[in-house]
Amino acid sequence: MDNSSATGGKYSTQAMVDGVDRPTPNHDTIHQHKGLRTGELVLRAGALLLTLAAAIVLGINKQTKTVPVQIISTMPPVNVPVSAKWHYLSAFTFFVVCNAIACAYAFFSLLLALIGKKGAAAATVILDLLTVALLFAGNGAATAVGLIGYKGNSHVRWNKVCNVFDRFCHQVAAALGLSLVGSVLFVLLVLVAVVRLHRKY
Questions:
Q1: 148 pLDDT exceeds 50?
Q2: Based on CB atoms within 10 Å of each CB, which residue in 54, 96, 116, 124 is the most buried?
Q3: Tens digit of each residue's pLDDT (9 = 90 or more) over 88-117
């Protein structure tokens, strides 16, 4: 019987190593492995850039507006300069920290992927999952506060502020979009790892 048919098509030839016949992966298997590795590198580079951009976009976000304030009802309102900055809200601070951590992890994991260190594969999958959870937590917290700023809350008499600080809110929305796409890339990295394990075993 032909050696290639005995191996079920997964291996095409037999290589003699240390006096023992060992199967050699065929061209399709090697091509698929290279494709997965290239996809992983692209996804990690994309996640690195997106989380870095999200942290920077919100981290430099601030806007100052002159707002009329009514001190006494019998007197005209007084114009007061009011500033909106990202670190005034703990949810936005948490968001920036989450994206900074994800960016740093993406950088180091990209280095490991470029080096081709196989021993760190299992740890990388676990850290990818933790990064997904971290990013979704940061995105959820920032989105909740952003919606309050955009719509307000009549039940607790919280007025909306995005009608005043429009540029600030637009920048928050842009940062959320970047971070959300970065989160999706980390999810895809986990799926790539699952596919790789499935084909290996």
A1: yes
A2: 54
A3: 999 999 999 999 999 999 999 999 888 876
Dist CA 140 CA 148 (whole Å): 13
C-alpha–C-alpha distance, residues 63 and 84, integer Å: 5
The residues near 166 (Cβ < 8 Å, ≥ 6 apart) are: none
* CA gap 143, 91 in Å, rounded: 9
| Cα 147 from Cα 162, distance rounded (Å) | 9
pLDDT in tens, 46-98: 999 999 999 999 999 999 988 888 777 777 888 888 899 999 999 999 999 99
25-27-33 Cα angle (round to 5): 75
Angle at 180 between CA 40 and CA 147, to 5 degrees: 175
Res 26: pLDDT: 57
Cβ atoms 99, 139 nearer than 8 A: no
